[in-house]
Design a protein that fits this description.
By secondary structure, the chain is mainly α. The protein contains 13 helices and no strands. The termini are far apart.
Length: 212
């Protein structure tokens, strides 16, 4: 049984959404290596995409347009990172990512294949500025792990709320239990729940525009 058939079977409302949308096209991976994905994730924290991209452009310029290797990043003075636009906290987080990468704590994509989801979460959340949600996004979008359910993600919880006509979003702990029914395809379920949230937001915007 494939992912879409399984999800439609265990959740009829999700199944109707899947039937409306059809198979999702996975967006092209911006990064294939966990080290680079974590650097980008920290850069984007609490920033609009355009601002983060500007900062990342300056950061890459320090390495001739490439992502600085861990050893090169460690060697950079704080002032160089602050000049790119990184805050003090983000500067320290980037340095910690580089230090963990240099020690082999952050695996390559090839090495990550031999590690479980739980092991990767345990390893990577030891890094300053990297929480479970960040690692879950890496697992879904960089490493393409099939069974990740980010219960702390607003969009995933909002999508479930909208799809099932709930008055409020499910709390993370009970939502994790709900998500078990989607296993072993919880990542695909999350992708469709994000779609449900996006659709609801678009419909609300259209209704507001018509009402004016």
């Amino acid at each position: 049984m494939d992912a879409l058939t399984h999800l439609a079977k265990v959740d009829r409302k999700l199944g109707r959404l899947i039937a409306q949308i059809g198979p999702l096209k996975r967006r092209k991976r911006e990064f294939t290596e966990p080290y680079e994905a974590l650097i980008s994730a920290v850069a984007h924290q609490q920033l609009h995409g355009k601002a983060a991209m500007t900062i990342m452009g300056r950061f890459r310029a320090l390495a001739d347009g490439n992502m600085p290797a861990p050893e090169a990043l460690i060697a950079l003075p704080d002032q160089a990172l602050r000049a790119c636009g990184f805050s003090g906290n983000k500067t320290r987080a980037l340095q910690d990512i580089a230090a963990h990468a240099a020690r082999g704590v952050i695996p390559s994509a090839a090495q990550a294949k031999r590690l479980s989801d739980a092991e990767l979460i345990k390893r990577l959340t030891l890094i300053r500025g990297v929480g479970q949600w960040t690692v879950e996004m890496l697992l879904i979008f960089t490493l393409r792990r099939p069974d990740i359910f980010p219960v702390d993600d607003f969009g995933v919880r909002e999508g479930y709320k909208v799809l099932h006509g709930l008055d409020e979003q499910p709390k993370p702990k009970p939502f994790a239990i709900i998500g078990e029914t989607y296993a072993p395809y919880r990542s695909t379920a999350a992708l469709y729940l994000w779609q449900a949230a996006d659709r609801a937001k678009e419909e609300k915007t259209q209704r507001s525009a018509k009402a004016k």
